[in-house]
Amino acid sequence: MKRTLLFTMLLCCLILVSCSDSNDTVDSPVAGNWRIASIKVSNATLIQTAPSDENITVDFQSNGNYAGNTTVNQFDGTFETENTTLTLLSFSTTEVADTQFGTAFYAAITQAQVPNTTFAQFAFQFDSGDLILTFGDGGEMVLE
Fold this sequence. Notes:
By secondary structure, this protein is an alpha+beta fold. The chain has helices at about 1-20, 100-110; strands at about 30-40, 50, 55-60, 65-70, 75-80, 85-90, 90-95, 120-125, 130-135, 140-144. The radius of gyration is 21 Å and the shape is globular.
């Protein structure tokens, strides 16, 4: 009887330990589909706004993946957020010559890269529903 009770308790403990709240989702405030409205590359005084006929979009998914496109390229990777920091843990892209606005986007990603690493980091905040990413020496991307 004691063996059966001990076995039952052990089995219950194993079931409780193996059942976690994790369902492969990331509780991230940046999750959603965003359109880049403007880009200011570090040290630049000019803010480039998205041309009316051009969209750069990115979808931060709840599973920690993201995907997006410029006018001619696609990109994707994985991300995480902690406090007010967005980290692109990986970044893959097609490599077709891009528009001026697309080139500014790739320059921003490059300038956000943390030295001696393969990932890019941005500080983020929200302003009137827009997602503001800051990076480098005064760089900024506004996503709506």
